[in-house]
Design a protein that fits this description.
The chain is of the alpha/beta class. The chain has two domains: 172 residues, Stage V sporulation protein AD (Peroxisomal Thiolase, Chain A, domain 1, 3-Layer(aba) Sandwich), CATH 3.40.47; 153 residues, Peroxisomal Thiolase, Chain A, domain 1. 35% of the residues lie in helices and 22% in strands. The longest helix is centred in the N-terminal third of the chain and has 20 residues.
Length: 336
């Protein structure tokens, strides 16, 4: 009997995993944003001393993971599993970083929902008694995402107002079976929702229905109304997608209220930085949550948050074949 499963899609951790250490690193654009003071490392340029964006992204991921391990106060050899993912084909940033870290590796792909997906799986492994320490990480890079999903930046293609700017960065955390710190107490796994959006320059609209579906299922499973959270975060819906999410939730009788925000609207100053509808990328939700939000919890400003990290599950191949864009949203609850 699945005694830890609550309702249709939610897990309540009996032994909630503790966030023992975090690591965040971003590029120069993100370093000029409003959350810069809560980021561990800000790079002066996009290269990180490497010849390609792909090599730079891998190095970002490795460094964020190393920072999280150091902050946790444990030896790398004590980590049982490394769960990581990114946006590139065959999740090469994660796989190649695992080659360097030499920790048993579980590669995952959830697009920009990867940080919540990885944290959920890590929590299940620890709560199930299969590990004491799990490292979770993900990354994205402006240059690599543009080259794979859109156009090489050298072409200087004009973007739509609904386009989002991929975050260059990486976020990592170490989950532990015991100790002190914020705990991951619930996890709601999302369904793939597709309402027929085909525009890869409007991913917020493609992902908003999935985020709303996960919110509604989380509320139904747990009985926790939106006003029970100090902060409700969506992954990277941007300005249009976050508005759609709030409207869809309200229409379904679930008003997210004034304690709602979107990671894609937080990491950049959308009024002064040319980022279109906001931010996107695996690193978006990871950096905002593992960096800024957890530091806000340390400062005593937040006690309980709900993160619904969202992902657009498209690929260049699916787009070329005329497919619409499926979306997914995975939710985790972090509380003191």
């Amino acid at each position: 009997m699945a005694s830890k499963k609550i309702g249709k899609a939610t897990v309540k951790f009996t032994n909630p995993p503790i966030i023992a250490g975090t690591g965040t690193i971003v590029g120069p654009m993100e370093g000029r944003g409003p959350l810069a003071k809560d980021i561990d490392v800000i790079l002066p340029d996009l290269t990180f001393g490497e010849k390609t964006g792909e090599r730079s992204e891998r190095k970002l991921l490795e460094q964020a993971a190393q920072i999280a391990i150091e902050r946790s106060g444990i030896d790398k050899g004590m980590i049982d599993y490394y769960i990581a993912g990114d946006l590139l084909n065959q999740i090469i940033s994660a796989s190649f970083s695992a080659r360097q870290l030499a920790i048993p590796f579980i590669g995952v792909y959830g697009a920009c929902s990867t940080c919540s997906m990885g944290t959920t799986l890590g929590g299940m492994i620890i709560d199930g008694g299969f590990a004491d320490y799990v490292l979770v990480a993900c990354s994205s890079h402006y240059q690599t995402a543009e080259r794979q999903f859109r156009y090489p930046i050298e072409l200087n293609i004009q973007h739509k107002a609904t386009s989002q700017y991929t975050v260059t960065g990486a976020g990592a955390l170490v989950l532990a079976s015991s100790g002190n710190g914020p705990r991951v107490t619930w996890a709601t796994t999302g369904r793939v929702i597709d309402l027929g959006v085909k525009d890869p320059y409007n991913l917020g609209a493609a992902m908003a229905p999935a985020a709303c579906d996960t919110l509604l299922r989380h509320v139904a499973d747990t009985g926790c109304a939106p006003d029970m959270y100090d902060l409700i975060l969506t992954g990277d819906l941007g300005s249009l997608g976050s508005q759609l999410f709030a409207e869809l939730a309200k229409d379904a009788g679930c008003n997210v209220g004034n304690n709602y925000n979107d990671c894609g609207l937080m990491i950049f100053d959308t009024k002064t930085q040319r980022v279109g509808s906001g931010a996107s990328g695996c690193a978006c939700a990871a950096v905002v949550t593992f960096g800024h939000v957890l530091k806000e919890m340390e400062r005593g400003n937040l006690k309980k948050i709900l993160l619904i990290a969202t992902g657009a599950l498209l690929s260049p191949l699916s787009f070329q074949q005329g497919e619409s864009i499926p979306g997914v949203g995975h939710a985790i609850v972090i509380e003191l």
